[in-house]
Amino acid sequence: MNKKTIFFILFIIILFSIFSIFISNKLISYSKLGKEISSFNIGKKQIALINIEGEISNDLHIMELLNLYSNMKSVKAIILRINSPGGSVGSSQEIYRQIKKVKEKGKIVISALSDVGASGAYYIAMAANKIYSNPGTITGSIGVVINYITAEKLFGKIGIDFITVKSGKYKDAGSFSRQTSEEDKRLFQKLINDVHEQFVNDIVESRLEQIAAAAKIQEKDEKKRKELVKKYIMNNIADGRIITGIEAKKLGLVDEIGNIDDAIEATAAMIGISGRPLVISEKKKTGLASWLNSKLENFTLKNDYNILKYLMIN
Q1: Catalytic site residue 141?
Q2: Fewer C-beta neighbours within 10 Å, C or N terminus of the chain?
């Protein structure tokens, strides 16, 4: 065999080894995850810590952890340490709903915002019993946005025709191959308004008393009270602005100014633990397999044409 053939065979072997490590790492089962964490279950009251970092787009693992801890009898409270600018609408709402279910089981859930806890990340945080924030945490950004580009003029200059065959007039709305029509814009605006109202309605349900107190709304009738709070949110909060933790507390969006340690101490007191509580969390994976997994999990073939992703993100 010549050198080129040898190098090619070595390259294939190395590539196969890398993907084997990646796949084996992905095949860690939910039951194994539960076994690893529940090994700390020694019968005493415990607090579980879940780290939520980066863009919220794949919520499966967070959902698994919420389900796992909610079923552990020794875990009396869960703290969500959030450091995220937000993410996709569906994932944010799915985690929000799951936190509500965890609370229905009698667990206390506390959110602790780190550097950033904005938009979709705040959506998640507000499902908790209480929200902690650092003074300079960037939060707020309550809104929804659609971004896309059009390249029709560029294609015309370089002599490229982009042909689309579609089943309906809106099927290629947002495509870069043509200009956006006024009908398209109205469709997108309707979509944005719908999701935005869902966001605001959930804020009203989750933060009604806190925001009413901040806005000095004293209406006793619950229906009218909610209407007034919603109007206040729409006019003063839900316009996409980002705010600090200090300002968020003044507006009723967060409950306490403090760091993660303050949140842990307060949570321990809420569940009747004196002294330093036992906090359990998922063991962070290290080594080559973990590094390869982080690099390869986003390595997917994507067709950007006609893909419109609307994000609740600043």
Answers
A1: no
A2: N
